[in-house]
């Protein structure tokens, strides 16, 4: 089955441009277009896309608020809907909020066509397309402007001491291989720890694990740990 995509942008020419890029791909089909966040939420419930290609800044209801509601609804309705946000700037405080709202990653609007289709495939499979190191750069740069980037440390009480250590290393941008080398364990063991962390904390992927580490104060902007 082709990957069903909903295009969301307040500019018709932008939606048309993305449609022209995506429609020739036999593995992707554009099922609809929305011009703002309100339409995005309504059309997502009606059309059930696999991926919502979401602009962040739109008049009326913006992409962050729409992403939050879509992700919440999809979880409740047990629908596999992923949100991939678009931005004009690669380091934008709105991107941080979009990730916190549940987006599975972000792209620049001038992304090459092959990278756009590749990202849609990646996100539709349940993975994130933002490397943890990039997420950390975003958080380090903008977390001090976002007081909402704090949550109760008690949520980390579900983790073992080793799992907390792995989460901190994830938040520092280390890959599974690097974490394995740092802890002197196998990569398979690290993958098991990461899986346990995501399950216990109810997180979807590594990107949101990094965000969660900041929210709970396990790591701090510009630092290695709380």
UniProtKB/TrEMBL annotation:
InterPro entries: CheY-like_superfamily, NreC/VraR/RcsB-like_REC, Sig_transdc_resp-reg_C-effctor, Sig_transdc_resp-reg_receiver, Tscrpt_reg_LuxR_C, WalR-like. SUPFAM superfamilies: C-terminal effector domain of the bipartite response regulators (SSF46894), CheY-like (SSF52172). The modification 4-aspartylphosphate is found at residue 55. Coiled coil: none annotated. Residues 4-124 form the Response regulatory domain. GO terms for biological process: phosphorelay signal transduction system; regulation of DNA-templated transcription. It comes from the Bacteria. This is LuxR family two component transcriptional regulator. It comes from Haloactinospora alba. The lineage of its organism: Bacteria, Bacillati, Actinomycetota, Actinomycetes, Streptosporangiales.
């Amino acid at each position: 089955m082709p990957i069903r995509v909903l295009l969301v942008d307040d500019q018709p020419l932008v939606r048309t441009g993305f449609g022209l890029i995506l429609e020739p791909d036999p593995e992707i089909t554009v099922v609809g277009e929305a011009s703002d966040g309100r339409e995005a939420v309504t059309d997502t419930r009606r059309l059930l896309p696999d991926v919502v290609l979401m602009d962040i800044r739109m008049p009326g209801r913006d992409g962050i608020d729409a992403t939050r509601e879509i992700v919440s609804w999809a979880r409740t309705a047990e629908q596999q809907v992923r949100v991939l946000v678009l931005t004009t700037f690669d380091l934008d405080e709105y991107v941080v909020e979009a990730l916190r709202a549940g987006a599975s990653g972000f792209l620049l609007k001038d992304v090459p066509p092959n990278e756009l289709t590749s990202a849609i495939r990646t996100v539709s499979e349940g993975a994130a397309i933002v490397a943890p190191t990039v997420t950390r750069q975003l958080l380090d740069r903008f977390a001090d402007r976002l007081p909402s980037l704090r949550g109760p440390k008690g949520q980390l009480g579900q983790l073992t001491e080793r799992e907390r250590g792995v989460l901190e290393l994830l938040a520092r941008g280390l890959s599974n291989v690097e974490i394995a080398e740092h802890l002197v364990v196998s990569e398979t063991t690290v993958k098991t720890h990461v899986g346990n962390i995501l399950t216990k904390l109810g997180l979807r992927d590594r990107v949101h694990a990094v965000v969660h580490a900041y929210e709970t104060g396990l790591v701090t902007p510009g630092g290695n740990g709380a």
